[in-house]
Automatic annotation (TrEMBL):
Annotated catalytic residues: 234
Family listed: Belongs to the HIT family.
Enzyme Commission (EC) number: 3.6.1.59
Protein name (Swiss-Prot/TrEMBL): m7GpppX diphosphatase
Organism of derivation: Hemiselmis andersenii (Cryptophyte alga)
Amino acid sequence: KDFHVERMLSESTSRKSIALLGHLEGADADTKTIVYLEKKPFVSEAIADALSSEPTPLTRDFNNAEYTVYSMGGAAGGLGAVKCDVIHPATAKHVVKYTKHEVRVVRETAEMYAKVTLPYIEREELGDRIKWVHNILDKKKESERIMLEDTDPKDGFIFLPDMKWDQETTSDLYCQAIANRRDLPTLRSLTSEHLPLLRNILKKGCGVLESKFGLKSHHVRVYVHYQPSFYHLHVHFAHVDTEGSIECGKAHLLQNVIDNIELRGDYYQTVPLTMTLRTSLGLWKAYESAGGLPVEGGG
């Protein structure tokens, strides 16, 4: 009741989600809040009980920096409870992230990465933008959600469920491994020096999913994004039945990444990478300002 909707940013029928922009009661007019609602999966065993029960109250799952995740409605999740992400205060970058956008296919050369992409990342995407990641690594936030930790400063990582996963439905499993190292913003940063780290993440990440959920490695997609949603090396682990974040032009399977670096240690510092990019993002605008875009297909 304290949230006042200003406009809808986007909605997805496939994900059964909606993103709303507004402000909190009593907050400064310039301080915005984003509420992202997503329906949780049905739990067939609980539907009968849920139909005869009162809706459960809003429950806070966890908080980290500006991100808070709630569960709301649907007794025991039987009627498909709603996962509610609240981002407050929401910055202009958050608004862009959740707004419906056009997508283009871009071919990024190594030269373009060095001259445009990396300077943009260092200027716009580090520091406070990834404070929530450092909170996890420093055990200031979400420590109770950690499923596995390897404390090695070079080859270690923290493994935990992604905010998108309800931690109940195995077929929707979605986890992340976040590298302890803080000097690897993207796939382009990886060389032969980092092979022990990548192999460690792949082996131990798959191992914890098998031990906890009985999932063999052939049930799990393991990949990195380029461009990523945040610029600190992290690896996605998703059940093969999940639909999100695996599109061509964004996801690179980790085993293929390892194979490519084994063939050539500086593979990702030399080859062009074709990717999809939102036209609303600052990186797209940085490309335009640099005097043109390397577009796939020449058009």
